[in-house]
Amino acid sequence: MKDKFYAYIQKLQDQICAGLEAVDGTAKFREDLWKRPEGGGGRTRVIENGPEGSGVFEKGGVNISAVHGTLPEAMQKMFGVGEADFFACGLSLVLHPKNPMVPTVHANWRYFEMYDESGKVIEQWFGGGQDLTPYYLFEEDAVHFHQTCKTACDKHNPEFYPKYKKQCDSYFWNAHRNEARGIGGLFFDYCKANETMSMENWFNFVSEVGNSFLEAYVPIVEKRKNLEYTSENRNWQEIRRGRYVEFNLVHDKGTLFGLKTNGRIESILMSLPPHVQWVYDHHAEKGSKEEKLVNVLENPREWI
Fold it and tell me: What is the rounded distance in angstroms from the CA atom of residue 263 to the CA atom of residue 67?
C-alpha cells in the first residue's frame, strides 16, 4: 500500500502543478529535492509571483514526502506506544493568491504505517482533506467547493461528506480566536480498515478526493483572479492571513509532526504567506463585506 500511495501522490503532484501553472499563466514551479538524515526525503515545488509580480499566486507550494525510521519520542507519547519504526508519506499544498478576491486553499492527503520489532505492520491509516479560506465571501464559490467535495464523497459513502465536513469545521478552528480558519471542506484522519472499508477502499476514497482538487479550486480562481481590488482590500487580506499563520503554528498537526520528526523546515513552513499583518485589536467595520466574512467564520454554515 505504501508503494501504491506514494506512486499516486507523485502523479498527483505533477497533475496539480500543471493545472495551477495553467491558471496562473506566467509563473512556474521551482523544484527542490531533499533528503532526511534519519530516512526518506521529498520533492518540494514552490510557485511565487511570476515575472515582475504578474502571477496569480503570490506564494504557494505543492509538496510530497516519504519519511521513515524510528518514531520520535514526542510521537511515541502522542500515539501511546514505545519504540517503533514508522513510514509516512503524503502530499501537502497551500496556495496564497495575490488578489484578495481569490481564496487561499489548503489540501493534504497522507498515509502512515507503524511496525513491530519484526517489521510487521501493526498500524496503518489514511488521512487528509481540502479546505478553503476566503478573504471576501462569494457564496457561490463556497457552494461550488463544498459540492465538489460532496460529489467525491458520495461515490463511496453518503455519510462521508456530512461527517468529514463537520470534522473539518471542528479541526480548522482557531480556539484562541473563537473562529474558523476558513469556510471548511473535508477533514478525515486515522482511516483504518474496518468491517465496511478495507485499506484498498480507503485508498480509492482518498484518491477520489485528491483527484477532485483541481475541479474544486481552479474554477473559483478563474472567476476571481481578474477582479479589481483596493489597498484596503489588501490590508484586510494580510490581517486575515495573520489568523492563518496563527492556526498553522499553534494548532496544526501536520506542522507539529514535521517539526517533531526533523522534517525539512523550508517545506514545512512553505504554508506561511509572504506578507502578513497583525493590527492591534482590529475589528471589521459594522455592515461591511469584511464583517460578513467574520460572521460566517464565527458561525460555520451548511453550504449544501
Answer: 9
pLDDT above 80 for 141: yes
Read off the amino acid at residue 41: G
- Can you read off the three cell numbers belonging to residue 294? 467574520
pLDDT of residue 154: 98
- What is the Cα–Cα distance from 54 to 51, expressed in whole angstroms? 6
Query: What is the predicted pLDDT for the residue at 27?
Result: 93
Query: Any bridge partners for residue 96, and if so which?
Result: 59
Whether 251 sits among the annotated catalytic residues: the reply is: no
Question: Residue 165's pLDDT is what?
Answer: 98
Tell whether the model's pLDDT for residue 257 goes beyond 80: no
pLDDT grade for 118, boundaries at 50, 70 and 90: confident
**Which residues, 6 or more positions from 49, have their beta carbon under 8 angstroms from its beta carbon?**
27, 55, 57, 58, 59, 98
Angstrom distances, CA of residue 6 to CA of 67, 126, 128, 251, 259: 11, 12, 14, 26, 21
Nearest partner of 136 among 273, 291, 23, judged by Cα: 291
Query: What is the average per-residue pLDDT within 35-42?
Result: 91
**Those residues with Cβ within 8 angstroms of residue 84's Cβ, 6 or more apart along the chain or in another chain:** 70, 71, 76, 114, 115, 116, 122
62 bridge partner residues: 93
State the average pLDDT for the chain.
94
Instruction: Give me the residue label for grid cell 520528526.
Output: 261
- Residue 190 phi, psi dihedral angles, 5° rounding: 50, 45
Please answer whether residues 103 and 182 qualify as being in contact, where contact means their C-beta atoms are separated by less than 8 angstroms.
yes
Catalytic pick from 68, 96, 106, 176?
106
The three cell numbers locating residue 53: 509580480
CA–CA gap between residue 91 and residue 130 (Å, rounded):
11
First to last CA, the chain: 34
Predicted local distance difference test score (pLDDT) of residue 73: 78
